[in-house]
Specification:
Layout: H1 2-33, H2 38-52, H3 58-65, H4 87-109, H5 116-132, H6 148-178, H7 184-224, H8 236-252, H9 255-264, H10 270-289, H11 296-309, H12 318-349, H13 351-373, H14 390-406
Helix pairs in contact: 1-2, 1-4, 1-7, 1-8, 1-9, 1-10, 1-11, 1-13, 2-7, 2-8, 3-7, 4-5, 4-7, 4-12, 4-13, 5-12, 6-10, 6-11, 7-8, 7-10, 10-11, 12-13
């Protein structure tokens, strides 16, 4: 089926963007402190993301079963929604994926480490509401366990950054407290070696959480066509393709986001970097084990902030942190709006034509954002340059010009 093929290709494209958008979660601090060279860092992260994708399927099953109601309790597509052979359900999944990718690329262009996970869930929820109404979304569990969008997505989104900040702050304070008698250059050198291990653990954890989200989406699409009915499993070919896609995306490296996390938030030292990475890995692995589809970006950013809070003389760029927080708040609704709009456009044309139209919109918007990014390119050669807040600088320049005009 052509529409199913489009959904699979688009899902793997999202997985690729997830990889390069989130590389900084694991490697930004190691690159910033010089523990790893930029190219070596993304290569190591890609390999460990690939391995991590095969370690669990709990998060994949959360995406398949706990967000939208495209199947009945037996795992079969809802009979009342199959009048067109399941293409309507596939259009919902495709529109949701387009909403997620567009938001991922937009925030990458703006150098903001927003949540790929929330973009995905927002896109799916928006497209589902547009296609099936509010009843098509699984908002809550059955009262005996945390489930649905609220239990598996919203609550982890609120709690995980706070937990990461606290753990990283305490860890950073302890590190500097216990090593206060060590010469700084020796401390930095030792903790750079430690960072290689802690950053590797974050990459492994990222694979166990984020790669599975795309596995869940493709499995959802297979359920929509009746090609898969096992609610407790994921096809092997889906696992392999998703693992490879996120690994390739990680290797490409989202340098714009890496630069923001490594240089724009906190001027970080090696002990802080190791504390932040260890905190991120602990929170992500624990959440993956419990099936929480949390945002690894929120966790990593919270950990970096915590490492700044935990060191008395560290400087935190709260202006950049504020912009990140705004991006976090609007990611779910923004991606939902795009997903809903894509569904309406696709449904206007209907069937294969509608799917091709929104796929073409995705290609056009992605191409435009990529070309626009080349105007101020960031790559492995300049990712560690001194931080310049371009947005703030442009505003200050505008104020200065205004004052000159008045004079």
């Amino acid at each position: 089926m052509v529409v199913l093929s489009l959904v699979v290709v688009t899902a793997l494209a999202f997985d690729f963007t997830n990889g390069f958008h989130d590389t900084g979660n694991a490697m930004a601090t190691s690159i910033a402190t010089g523990a790893l060279r930029p190219r070596a860092a993304v290569t190591l992260s890609a390999i460990l993301n690939l391995i991590g994708a095969f370690l669990s399927v709990e998060v994949a099953l959360t995406v398949t079963n706990a967000v939208v109601k495209l199947q009945d309790s037996n795992g079969a597509p809802r009979a009342e929604l199959l009048s067109d052979g399941g293409e309507g359900l596939l259009l919902i999944v495709l529109a949701g994926l387009v909403g997620a990718i567009v938001w991922n690329l937009a925030t990458w262009l703006w150098s903001l480490p927003s949540s790929s996970s929330h973009a995905l869930f927002g896109g799916l929820v928006g497209a589902t509401i547009a296609g099936l109404g509010f009843g098509g979304v699984k908002w809550m569990g059955d009262g005996t366990k945390l489930d649905g969008v609220v239990g598996k997505v919203v609550l982890p989104a609120l709690l995980s950054p706070a937990v990461a900040i606290i753990v990283a702050a305490v860890g950073t304070w302890l590190v500097f407290r216990l090593t206060r008698g060590v010469v700084e250059r020796h401390r930095e050198a030792a903790f750079r070696w430690g960072q290689i291990g802690s950053a590797s653990l974050v990459s492994l954890a990222h694979g166990t959480n984020d790669a599975q989200k795309t596995m869940g989406v493709i499995t959802l699409a297979l359920i929509a066509t009746g090609s898969w009915t096992d609610l407790a499993g994921v096809p092997l070919w889906v696992k392999v393709s998703c693992a490879v896609a996120i690994a390739v995306g990680t290797y490409v490296g989202g340098w714009r986001v890496i630069r923001t996390l490594g240089k724009g938030l906190v001027e970080i030292s090696a002990p802080q970097g190791m504390a932040a990475e260890s905190s991120s890995a602990a929170v992500i692995l624990a959440s993956s084990h419990m099936g929480f589809a949390l945002s690894t970006t929120h966790v990593a950013t919270g950990s970096i902030l915590g490492s700044g809070v935990g060191r008395h003389e560290a400087k935190v760029n709260w202006r950049v942190a504020g912009r990140m927080a705004v991006a976090w708040l609007v990611t779910l609704p923004a991606a939902a709006v795009v997903g809903a709009v894509m569904w309406f456009i696709g449904n206007l044309f209907g069937g294969l034509v509608g799917a091709l139209v929104i796929f073409s919109i995705l290609l056009a918007s992605s191409g435009w954002m990529y070309l626009h990014s080349r105007k101020s390119a960031v790559d492995h050669r300049n990712v560690n340059d001194d931080w310049v807040d371009e947005l703030a600088a442009s505003r200050e320049a505008g104020v200065a010009l205004g004052e000159m005009g008045k004079a």
